[in-house]
Amino acid sequence: GDVYKRQGVLQRVRAADVVYTDETGFRVDGRQYWVWAFTTTAETLVAVRKSRGRRVLSEVLGEDFKGTLVCDGWRSYPNFTNRIQRCWAHLLREAKYLGERIDEAKPLSEALHGLYSRLLAFVEDRPPPGEAMRLVEDAKSTMAEWAEKPYETDEVRRLATKIWNGIDHWFTFLAISGVESTNNRAERALREQVVQRKITGTLRNQKGTFIHETITTVLATWKQLGLDLTKMLPTALSLKWQES
């Protein structure tokens, strides 16, 4: 029954071992808000909030959240928990972009892509935990060496700083089963929100915000579960009518 209710989705997300999360700008009454997506393998929770900060994570996931967050490098995430997997897709896209434009970034980009390919191959072999931890330490050392090189270009130095700042969070997927190396799940969950943003321009008020996050949470979760929306909607409306 709780697949019909946002509260049910919220409770399952809070209890999940792994949550993929991302956020993007959204307008409410013409003002800057943020729409957040909290995604697992089975559900997606949408939250529209004024803040892009840690307090949203605390509110949604709870201060006692025990799972792992898969996310980008936004500072709110490490301020909330140290159980993090940084997104390799973000990192590799930025490295590739710089490598195509700046000569000194090309070796760095190639090194990161090569390291990532080796890590994925290692994961596919399902190594024992001890071997995985040794690989984590080796990979961390390799990444640190590249991050500490004396780059001359500001853009490349910023990328090196990003690598270094996340040095403890790039390899969680090697150590914890079920954690993916990218945040693609949350990015996919936000695509529908980006489409809605283009269509509506802005939500009008707090009531509209509540309705939007409730409906999009339930619809996204039904889709993930492979449920037939044409059958689910009449049931959901019938239950709502019985409650009123």
Provide a descriptive summary of the structure in words:
This protein has 244 residues and is an alpha/beta fold. The chain has eleven helices and five strands. Strands 3-2-1-4-5 form a five-stranded mixed beta sheet. A hairpin with a 2-residue loop joins strand 1 and strand 2. Helix 4 (88-101) packs antiparallel against helix 5 (105-124) and helix 5 (105-124) runs antiparallel to helix 6. The longest helix is centred in the middle third of the chain and has 20 residues, at 105-124. The mean pLDDT is 90.
Q: Specify the biggest β-sheet.
A: 5 strands, mixed
Q: Given the C-alpha coordinates, what overall shape results?
A: globular
Give the low-pLDDT segments. none
Distinct helical segment count: 11
Helix content: 55-70%
Beta-strand percent range: 5-15%
Terminal-residue CA separation: 17 Å
Rg to the nearest angstrom?
A: 20 Å
Number of strands: 5
**Main β-sheet, spatial strand arrangement:** 3-2-1-4-5
The string of secondary-structure elements, in order, is: HEEEHEHEHHHHHHHH
In short:
By secondary structure, the protein is of the alpha/beta class. The chain contains eleven helices and five strands.
Write the layout of secondary structure elements.
Blueprint: H1 6-14, E1 18-28, E2 31-39, E3 44-49, H2 54-61, E4 68-71, H3 76-80, E5 84-86, H4 88-101, H5 105-124, H6 129-147, H7 154-165, H8 172-175, H9 184-200, H10 206-224, H11 229-243
Parallel strand pairs: 1-4, 4-5
Antiparallel strand pairs: 1-2, 2-3
Helix pairs in contact: 4-5, 4-7, 5-6, 6-7
